[in-house]
Structures are given as structure tokens and as C-alpha cells.
Amino acid sequence: QVQLVESGGGLVQAGGSLRLSCAASGRTFSRYTMAWFRQAPGKEREFVTSINWSGRSTNYADSVKGRFTISRDNAENTVYLQMNSLKPEDTAVYYCALPRAEYYIADYSATWAYEYWGQGTQVTVSS
Fold this sequence. Notes:
0% helix; mainly beta; single chain; 49% strand; seven-stranded mixed sheet
């Protein structure tokens, strides 16, 4: 049984930083791309960033490039999201996701490519 457990969310002032973690179990973690999505109230879930199985390739939404950094520790089955220079518009519930397919996935930014989701962690950025 796959489990994804996020942690690290909270309330921070604009310009501050947070680090999210997602601990995975139930799959051979090192074979999977991992991703972070977010969903703000009244909006659709949107892609934030992804990292391939080896950690050598990453992708970012334009809105977070240069501010957010995704990383992974395959020995610990954990993916991280370092968020710096946070803005009020970053306020959302953040979800980590594990895809249906091992190794390469073409549509890394599409919600339908992911089979498992964490419970989400709330990030609130005050102005």
C-alpha cells in the first residue's frame, strides 16, 4: 500500500521560507519521478515542480522558478520542497504525488499522470 505523508507547512510572512517534506512508502521510491502540486481555495490543482527518479532532472512552474527547489533522498524515500521568497499568492494546500509509471513520464505536469497523492499540507503566506 502506497503512502505519501507531507509535513512542514505553516504560516509565514511574505519573503520568508518553508521546507516541505514528503515521506513515501509502498513503492520502490528510486524508480519514480516525484512531484509537488498545490491547490488554492476555489482554484484547480496546479503543478509546482517535479524531480526525476535519479534527482538529476527537475522541472518548475514559471511562477516558482528561482524561488523553489525540489530535491530527493532516495535512501530516505523522501522528497523535499524548499520554498524561499514566499509570496501571498503561494498560499495553498501543497500535495506530493507519485505517478502511475516508473522512471520516465512525459506529462510530468499533468495531474492525471499521478496515481497516489498525499493528504496535503497547508502553506499560508501573510502579506
